[in-house]
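We store chain and fold; example below:
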Amino acid sequence: MIVAAIGIIINGATAWLFASGRKGDLNIRGAFLHMVADAAVSAGVVVAGLVIFYTGWLWLDPLTSLVIVGVIVWGTWGLLRDSLAMSVDAVPTSIDPQAVRSYLSSCAGVTAVHDLHIWPLSTTENALTAHLVLPGGHPGDEFLLKAASELKQRFGIGHTTLQIEISAETACHLAPDHVV
């Protein structure tokens, strides 16, 4: 019980250090949840140990273990969901793909947007590729730099690749409008 009590203090303090960054980074959230779970396990051990010592209820030990497992599974389910979404290159939940499409469609000279893909590169960086139909031809580097800057500022997308196409008729075979 003494070792578990020390574990509560150490794991609680470590979790507190990770607490501020847990919302923006999947890795930090994983570390935070791990430390909180370790502190909870230690607390469960201390409480169960005290109750067993004073009452002799040995059945409390496996019950405490099951409760701790339930708390850990419940607390980490979101982490598992977000990790799985990232591993299959799903659009990050913080980005609205329709808002991105609307922005790109509103850029000067753009008549259509297709083959729009948005995915996470890491827990803190996102990427985008899209095909833009501009009948007037390639608008120049200034257009691309402005679009990339706006995508970063508005949506947190730091890695942008835009393909310029002259017309929908000569566009690539991916022209049907879709978002992946």
